[in-house]
Amino acid sequence: MNIYTLLSDLLKLEKAFAVFGVIAFSQVLIIESRYVASEGVGGGIGGGYSPLYPLIVLIQYGVIATSLLLMALRPKSVFRALWRDPFIWALAFTAIISFAWSDFPSLSMKRGISTLQTAMFGLYLASRYSLKEQLQIVAWGMGIISVFTVLFTGAFPGSGIEQGVHAGAWRGPLVHKNLLARLMAMGTIPTLLVALDAPPKHRRTLWLVFGVTIGLAFLTTSKTGLLIALALVALTPLFKALRWSDGIMIPFLILIVFVTTSGVTWLVENWEGFLFGLGKEPTLSGRTYLWEASIEKIRQRPWLGYGYQAFWQVSGGAEYVWTAVRYQPAHSHNGFINLTLDLGLLGSFFFAMSLVTIYIRGVSWLRVTQSSAALWPLLYASFLILYNQTESTIIEHNNLFWLLHVAVTLSIGYVRRLTPQEKAEREYWEQYKQQISQPAIPGGNAPTGEGA
After folding, report:
1. Which of 314, 258, 291 is nearest to 107 (CA)?
2. Per-residue confidence (pLDDT) for residue 46, from 0 to 100
3. DSSP character at residue 440
4. What is the pLDDT of residue 449?
5. Pairwise CA distance, residues 280 & 382, whole Å
6. Potential cystine with 410: which of 81, 195, 218, 378 (Cβ 3.0-4.6 Å)?
7. Coil, strand, or helix at residue 159?
8. What are the distances in angstroms from CA 337 to CA 39, 285, 405?
9. Membrane-spanning regions, if any (predicted)?
10. For 367-436, where are the alpha helices, taking DSSP H only?
């Protein structure tokens, strides 16, 4: 075994670790649907608790620990990625120190620290892999998750398909159909972008995986999940058009897609309330009552909120909201409201600035590279904006969406056009990385220094 074979094997092993990390934080390995009954069905196998949960949490901590070890071997690249977006770290540290004003200080501190730990895997991805490589890793992870979901549901239809309130809807190994819909809506982005740039011999397989993610989003019967998945597909050529258009037409079309998707999302989630409102009632039913009650509580503690993940606890601030809406939701069904309840306007400001940073740098990045991977930051930020209008997917501990947000944010810095010499050097090292990642040829050599 020569040095190039060894390097190739190590690189493949490390990339397999990264793919496994994506799967571990997706929550599918907990197989919660096997042990928790569907909504509206009493009881449930195993008393409503997955015995795999402690094991998966231990695996997640193992992934984080391994990430820290690998980052210690590459301190320069880690520090470069670390400082690309101070707002993301300000948001994470606000979650930790919120114990100081939280109604449940030990809970806020524990989950805040866990949130920072989860961000470490995102930092590892950003410091170790290019956007193109990250996209391939996430696409591989989503492909495995999608196939696993199909196989699991086929093997255990009583668990993988909802009973009760949402009878017939797929939830796969997750506890609720909306969680699977959210995962598949996000999964359409990396599988689509990787398929667009794939070599012909792999293209058919990748398009098939993309089709499976769309199909699973449809089978969840979540109109919001399917709508947002299709909206992200529609945004892909519009964002790509920003490369050759400096006018206002393309941004205007993008804005139309955002507004239309937002309006239709709100409508499908509040359809009964909308029809009820046409009868001249003073207010709509559905989530609007929940949002109004939540905003009323925000007014009482607007700047710092109630502490990270402290509001929706029993005997917490949510008691007022539960009384107003006459049921007990676990969150406000709006990520922006939920974040403000947890961390106040300060936390919301940090998150908003992080999104603005992604869009500004993302457009610049898009215009200096022709790879479809350059679309990933803009599309992921769009996913967060669209989905958080009816669900909460911003900052969560042990959560795939939070770590991907960290990875995307820290992967793009300020962009300038490369000089011819810098471009030649980058092409040389890309060629070198590709060669050592291929099976070694006896007597083969590293790339020559020509053009470096």
Report:
1. 314
2. 42
3. P
4. 38
5. 34
6. 81
7. helix
8. 24, 18, 18
9. 12-31, 51-70, 82-101, 137-158, 179-196, 208-235, 247-268, 336-360
10. 376-387, 400-411, 420-436
What single-letter DSSP state applies at residue 126? H
- The Cα-based distances of 417 to 10, 365, 373, 420 in angstroms read 32, 10, 17, 9
DSSP 171: -
Query: For position 202, what pLDDT does the model report?
Result: 83
Extract long-range pairs of 201-209: CB within 8 Å, 24+ residues apart.
206/139, 209/139, 209/142, 209/143, 209/146
Q: Which neighbouring-strand residues pair with 170?
A: 161
311 in Cβ contact with 341 (< 8 Å): yes
Report yes or no: 183 and 228 within 8 Å, Cβ to Cβ. Answer: no
What is each CA distance from 204 to 147, 150, 210, 338, 370, in whole angstroms? Answer: 16, 19, 10, 41, 22
pLDDT of residue 44: 45
Classified as helix, coil or strand, 185 is helix
Task: Name the nearest CA neighbour of 34 among 215, 160, 202.
Answer: 160
Q: What does each C-alpha distance from 4 to 1, 353, 434, 435, 443 come to in angstroms? A: 8, 43, 11, 9, 10
Residue bearing tokens 């196989």:
151
Residue 251 neighbours by CB under 8 Å, 6+ apart: 242
* Residue 1 CA to its chain's centroid (Å): 39
Sign of the Cα torsion 294, 325, 311, 301 reads: positive
With tokens 């020569």, the residue in question is: 2
Q: According to the 3-state scheme, what is the secondary structure of 236-263?
A: HHHHHHCCCCCCCHHHHHHHHHHHHHHH
Instruction: Give SS3 for 170.
Output: strand
Q: Is 438 helix (H, G, I), strand (E, B) or coil?
A: coil
What does the block give as tokens for 86?
């101070």
Please give the pLDDT value at position 241: 87
Give the span between the Cα atoms of 383 and 375, in whole angstroms: 12
CA separation for the pair 183, 225 (Å, rounded) = 9
Task: Give the angle subtended at the CA of 253 by the CAs of 131 and 416, to the nearest 5°.
Answer: 35
Can you give the pLDDT at residue 287? 75
The candidate with the shortest Cα–Cα distance to 313, out of 330, 301, 327, is 330
Structure-token pair, residue 416: 């300038």
Of 336, 333, 335, 295, residue with least CA distance to 317 = 295
